[in-house]
Amino acid sequence: MRVTIVGTGYVGLVSGACFSEFGHHVTCVDVNDEKIKALKAGDIPIFEPGLDSLVDRNVKAGRLDFSTRLADSVGASDAVFIAVGTPSRRGDGHADLSYVMKAAEEVASLLYGYTVVVTKSTVPVGTGAKIEEILMEHAPDKEWDVASNPEFLREGAAITDFMHPDRVVVGTTSERARNVMKELYRPLFLNETPVMFTRRESAELIKYAANAFLATKISFINEMADLCEQLGADVQDVAKGIGLDNRIGKKFLHAGPGYGGSCFPKDTLALLRTAQQVGTPLRIVQATVDANDNRKRAMADRIIAALGGSAKGKRVAMLGLTFKPNTDDMRDSPSLDIVPALLKAGATIHAYDPEGTAEAKKLLPDITYCDDAYACMNGADILVIVTEWNQFRALDFDRAGDLLKNRILVDLRNIYARGEPQAKGFEYYGIGRGGAASSIAAASLTATDS
Ligand code: UDX
User: Fold this and answer.
1) Fold annotation for 208-222+234-288
2) Counting beta carbons within 10 angstroms of the beta carbon of residue 182, is it exposed (0 to 12), middle (13 to 18) or buried (19 or more)?
3) N or C, which terminus of the chain has less Cβ within 10 Å?
4) Which part of the chain is the UDP-glucose/GDP-mannose dehydrogenase C-terminal domain (predicted)?
């Protein structure tokens, strides 16, 4: 099969590379000339484990190429995937569909032979119908169908998620479009991955509902963590204890500083706006969003409380800035709330992130960036783990203790077992681990309320 992917961002590039690995011929198109030049030269613009070798292998095999011109490939394609951005519209939180619509118009003018136009971008319910209107207007005499095929890729694990998904969702009622999509995903069919065909509107909503549900699980366990701190319970045990019930499931019950990234914050807001528009308020999703916003803001208060109530003149050693490990993505990262609040409270920050530094420097210019974890500890008053990169999971506490002014560790990701840092003389503050943590939790809750 021949495939064009419009938009060579995170989703477009990963999907294009993976379809070419399935044996299809894929052209990834982007308006950004520099990006395409870089890709042609073998430079991958994002950090995603395994992506560079996947791209390299398929480019060399002649199955994957890059272009700035849709006209080079759309006409010959069996399927055209629209994978351009749908950012939150400034002011109202609706998904901004201008890039999607522009792409659809351009594609329409280039169609030749039967083509399935597929939305891969996360788009509000009804977008497929709008694209259909555009195609009717601009390509009335051509043969095409519009399908929805949402992605469920996690950054840092995107290739595995594409190759071994829990399910593939395709929204179309056209038999002809189904056959094209079946052929595209044939290797997964053979692996017995569930491939669901639904109405287009259902597929569009599945993506939003999945993300909103996962976000809700996180906000739920984060609130339980706050409660654990007040009641002397341990959220790790509570999460395990409830997660072993198959009806609940153990994933996405890891308490932390609040969810960030390119999907959950944006998609939950867009879903709320869609629901408002049709007069169906989503109270649970709204509460999830509010709890997460408050939580991110409350994290700096925890650090200040662990410093004894004031950050003035204190130096904070911060490990991790990205919204999660194995990515260089800083979008909606909790660090974007934590760092400014600490600076405002009079602290200085020395930080280290294995991959996020370049991006972080643009967003958080007022901190000192260090070359490794220990370099930022030198002379610091407190050590804070914001992102759970693997290399922070086995810190040398003796070395850290010698470098730090005070042996205080705030672990916002609970990557250390109870008692482990304490055995090395550290005051340890995790998340939702009653007892020792309760005093700073109480302080931070008061600070948030006021
Ligand atoms: C998410 C969805 O998982 C994916 O299916 C969708 O297509 C895009 O959005 P991603 O944003 O890459 O993927 O990361 P994910 O691993 O889901 O984590 C999102 C955020 O939630 C991160 O900030 C992470 O730290 C946080 N999180 C996740 C928790 O705080 N606790 C958890 O238990 C899981």
Assistant:
1) N-(1-d-carboxylethyl)-l-norvaline Dehydrogenase; domain 2 (1.10.1040)
2) middle
3) C
4) 317-418
- Using the atom order of ligand 1, give the atom closest to the CA of residue 263: 9
Across the range 391-407, mean pLDDT stands at: 97
CA distance 384 to 195: 43
Please identify which residue in the block is written with the tokens 């560790």. Answer: 409
- Ligand 1 atom nearest 122 alpha carbon: 7
Cα(264) to ligand 1 centroid in Å equals: 7
Quote the ligand 1 centre to 293 CA distance (angstroms).
15
Q: Which residue lies with its CA nearest to atom 15 of ligand 1?
A: 154
Where is the binding site for NAD(+), in residues? 30, 35, 86, 122, 155, 266, 331
Mean per-residue pLDDT, 131-146: 97
Determine if ligand 1 sits within 6 Å of the CB of residue 167. Answer: no
List the residue whose alpha carbon is closest to atom 17 of ligand 1.
154
Token look-up 């477009």 returns 12
Longest distance between any two alpha carbons in the chain, whole Å: 75
The letter for the amino acid at 431 is: I
Q: Which atom of ligand 1 is nearest to the CA of 256?
A: 30
Binding residues: 30, 35, 86, 122, 152-155, 207, 252-256, 260, 266, 324, 331
The DSSP secondary structure of 359-404, one letter per residue, reads HHHHH-TTSEE-SSHHHHHTT-SEEEE-S--GGGTT--HHHHHHHS
Residues carrying an active site annotation? 263
The interface pTM score, or ipTM, of the predicted complex is: 0.97
**Burial of 227 from C-beta contacts in 10 A (0-12 / 13-18 / 19+):** middle
Structural domain 2-197, CATH architecture? 3-Layer(aba) Sandwich (3.40)
Mean pLDDT of the chain: 94
The yes-or-no answer to whether 2-197 and 208-222+234-288 have a common fold is: no
> Looking at residues 305-333, what average pLDDT do you find?
97
Model confidence at 435, in pLDDT bands (50, 70, 90)?
low
**Is the beta carbon of 220 within 6 A of some atom in ligand 1?**
no
Q: Which residues have C-beta within 8 Å of that of residue 257, sequence separation ≥ 6?
A: 295, 296, 299, 334, 338, 386, 412, 413, 431
Ligand 1 in reach of 13 Cβ (< 6 A): no
Express each pLDDT in 271-282 by its tens digit: 999 999 999 999
Q: Summarize pLDDT for 195-242 with one digit per residue, the tens.
A: 999 999 999 999 999 999 999 999 999 999 999 999 999 999 999 999
Every domain of the chain and the residues it spans: 2-197, 208-222+234-288, 292-449
Which residues pair with residue 3 across a beta bridge?
26, 79
CATH 3.40.50.2000 fits 292-449, yes or no: no
